[in-house]
Every structure is written in C-alpha cells, then in structure tokens.
Amino acid sequence: MPRSLNTSLVRLKSSGIRRINALAAQHPGCIALALGEPEFDTPQEIRDEVTRALQRGETHYPPNNGTPFLRRSISEYMSAQGFDYAPDNVIVTDGATEALHATLLAMLEPNDEVIIPTPAFGLYESIVRVNHAFPVFLDTARADFQIDEDALRDRVTPATKAIVICSPNNPTGCIFNAASLDAVARVAAETGIYVICDDVYNRLVYTDGYERFALRHPELREQTVVVDSFSKPWAMTGWRIGWLAADPSLAVQIAKAHQYMVSSAVSFEMPAAAVALSVDPAPMLETYRARRARVLAALEKMGLSVVEPAGAFYVFPSIKGTGLTSEQFCARAIEEAGVGLVPGSCFGSEGYVRLSYCVSDEDLDEGLRRLDRFVAGL
Ligand SMILES: Cc1ncc(COP(=O)(O)O)c(C=O)c1O
Question: What is the E.C. number (predicted)?
C-alpha cells in the first residue's frame, strides 16, 4: 500500500471559485460574474514585443531573478511610485501566485501561524497550510473591512510569523485606511512579524486616499515584502508573470525558494513585461469605473447593502437579509436565474457574495437584470 502524501495538501479543498464556475458551466447561457480576470486582451504593443523576443531567440534560461533589464525597469517603475528598491531587491516571479509561495516558503516553519484578515483571497490559506503552518483569521467585516488593532493584537502569539494584507482587496474592493495600516505597523514593530503586502490591484483604484503599506511605513522595510503582478492592470493573467520587492536580508532567502521552485519566470516575456510598465492602464480603469457605478446603483435598487469598493473590480454585497447562506444563494442564482457569483464563504466571510464586473458591458447588464429578478423573487 503506498505511503501517505502530504496530508496538509490532501486536506485542502479545491478552490470554491472553480466549483461555482463548474456549476455555472452546467447551465448553458449562465452569465458568470465570478472570475477575477479582465475580459480585455493584453495591449498590442506588449504582445508585439514577445514576438520580437522570440525572433531574437530569447528562448534560453534567463537569470533566476529575471533579466537585469526588467529588474531595472521594475525598480524605476517602483521608484516613480515612491519606493526605493534597487534592481537587486526585485525578483521577477511566475505571477503574484508564485511570489506569495516563495515568500511564505522562505518564512514558514512547521506550526507557525500567519494572520489573514478576512474576507481574503483563498490562496493565502492554502499556501500557509501546505507549508504545515496555520492560518489565523482576523474578521474585518465587523469593522467595514478595516483592521481593528485590538482584534489584531489578540491574534498574535509567539508562533505568529507574518500577516498578509491585500489592498485594494479581493473580494471586497476596499482599501485599508491609514488607521488600519498604522495598526498593522505598530503590531509588526512590536512583535517582529513580517508584513506581506499583496498589492496586485494597486493600479486599479477609483478614489483618493489610497496608501500603500510599504510607502507609509518604510521603517519596517526589513519586515516587509511587496508583491505585484502584471496580471490585473495590463490584462496579462495568462502570461503568469509578476514580481516581489524586499530588503536584501529577505530577498536573498526568497530568491532561493524561487530558484528551487521554478528557476525563473519565462525568458521571452521579460522584454514585453518591461514594455507593459510604460503602458497606461487608465482606459481599462475608466471602463471599470463606469461599470462599478452601474453595479452600485443596481445593488441599491435590489436593497443589497455594500461597502463601496475603492479599487479592483469586485463588489461584496451582504446577502444576510435573504436568510440564505452564501453557497445556497449562489447555487440558486445559477439554477434559477442563470447568473454566477462567488459565495462569501470561499473568502472566509459568510453572509456575502462576490460579484466581478470585469466582464463585457452586455454581460454585466444582463447579469444584473437577472440578479435583480432573482433577489426580488426571494
Ligand atoms: C489578491 C490577489 N493576489 C494574487 C493573485 C494572483 O495573481 P497572479 O495572476 O499574478 O498570480 C490574485 C488573482 O486573482 C489576486 O486576486
């Protein structure tokens, strides 16, 4: 009889988002407002550069941490955003997904704990668990998706290694205010825990007042990792390329994790990724902004309350008034109304559903009409 596999991995459930998409796929004509993926194609000038790189024969192993040109370009791009990360402090990764894996692999030992403010992107919990560590959830729903300092302090133990913060957030679209960032900073300064900033939606912000943790708290540089990605701002989800930036003391170890996991990102994508950095995502942002306004108006009409999102392309309305669990709500919305949403339970927050508005205008409008009829009939 074969011996057991990694039990922490075996116990992981497959992503709830994929489950809902599979259910939606069984209902022809169902409109899925469920995926976190821009419907746009990657801008043409970025795609053209891949073709040129292939013609130039850039098909060999690149340096593990990325080509010097791309790392310099990222360092300059981040410096225009106010950061101070030299090219040596930048690691080009296989998307933010691998950046998060490499970062946590570098940090975690068995039985460590990682604080995850919820609702949260499910990947964090999975990575923590496969590293034989434990997620410790911090419910932010009661504080309008902000961080309550006392609640955070209550979660810290001698085993706490890190906190993962995501702003703008998936699934709420909310950004952490200054008080939340300062609360994290105070706790991190006192306890030495690492702060992993998942900033993949930083270019998709609709309001003033967005601040990034690493810029507001440079004094915590040795404890901070900034994760970013080409996926969302430049509609490059299928390319699987992103990056992280960290102080050398951390970057050296994360680079080892990255090297042993994937060796590097894809060589011939790197010149194109450098082109992407100079492409302004504003036209896509304006499209999302207009859709966000339509979604908020439609939810108000349906009587579903929502904390207005400041970024990303999601809203996370409360469905508590319907008396249904989020799984029941989403399953029935697919079966009875032909519209797919993601249950809040997939993000660790019952009583909510996630609606993505990164779909075509027609699909969005029809999806909202169906949702309206469904909610009215409950
Ligand atoms: C918050 C968050 N972080 C990371 C990722 C992964 O991004 P990437 O495509 O760069 O791996 C996603 C993708 O949906 C996300 O929503």
Answer: 2.6.1.-
